[in-house]
Amino acid sequence: MAEVIDVQKMCRACLVDTGPFTSLFSPTTRETLLFSQIFKYCTSVEVSDSDQLPKQMCTACADLLKTLYSFKKMVLKSNVILKQHIDSQGEKKETKR
Ligand SMILES: [Zn+2]
């Protein structure tokens, strides 16, 4: 007998069916972005409020996503700084000639 799975009552990220859940369409605490926006930004997975897929995440995944979002922003920011540094080093070498 097939187990009945209610996808509306699952975590979108890890599929756990026990809450508490955080809605993907609620704003994140310190950002003006919705969880669905940072979910897509970090995972490249499309989240829509008009599909039949889960629209919430468990607390553990919501926390992980917030951490991942901070990590990704940090890496991108550092990457810009590093590239600027390399560029300025290159310019110094060129002016010597
Ligand atoms: Zn989860």
UniProtKB/TrEMBL annotation:
Family matches, as Gene3D superfamilies: 3.40.1800.20
Binding residues annotated for Zn(2+), in chain numbering: C11, C14, C58, C61
Domain of life: Eukaryota
GO annotation, cellular component aspect: nucleus
Segments forming domain ZAD: 9-85
Keywords: Metal-binding, Zinc, Zinc-finger
First and last residue of the signal peptide: none
InterPro entries, per the entry: Znf_AD
Pfam families registered for this protein in UniProt: zf-AD
GO molecular function: zinc ion binding
Name of the protein this chain belongs to: ZAD domain-containing protein
Organism, scientific name: Operophtera brumata (Winter moth)
